[in-house]
Amino acid sequence: MADQKTSQLTETTTLADADMFYLSQGGSSDKKISGVTIKNLSPNTPTAVFGDGNDVASLEAGLTCFVRVPYGGTIREWTLVADATTTCVLDVWKAAGSLPTNSDSITAAAKPGLTAATVGGSTSLGTWTTTVTSGDVFGFELESFTGSPTQITLTLRVA
Questions:
Q1: Architecture of domain 6-158
Q2: What distance in Å separates the CA atoms of residue 103 and residue 121, rounded to the nearest whole number?
Q3: Among 44, 83, 91, 133, which residue's Cβ finds the most Cβ atoms within 10 Å?
Q4: Residue ranges in the chain whose pLDDT is less than 50
Q5: What does pTM read for this prediction?
Q6: Where are the domains of the chain?
């Protein structure tokens, strides 16, 4: 599948195992974003990309996005990547077939985050609720950040 803007898509496309699908939403002229600018849906890696990659003003604490997953498994790892050094905290929510809220957090006291870094992650998820069922909806929230990143990406690996 070739790269295309969603406005250019005119037919249904079935993705092969190696294909990745990106859904992009641009910000308005005042740089307010009513969610997340990019969602990456690929096999077994629910992902949220916060920010437009061009301007730190595209990021603000409290941004959330939602992704419904069509597979089950166990969360094995989280990874975070930022395009500039940042200290940030994110939260992950999950609900069965409906939009999750903050009360549906699965991270307990072990929220994903970076401390004066651009890359981080963990496979130590002892306090997380790690079971994923087909049809679950994940919510990703950028709780806080400092520094001047223009994009922060959180990815979960489900196996």
A1: Sandwich (2.60)
A2: 23
A3: 91
A4: 1, 3-41
A5: 0.74
A6: 6-158
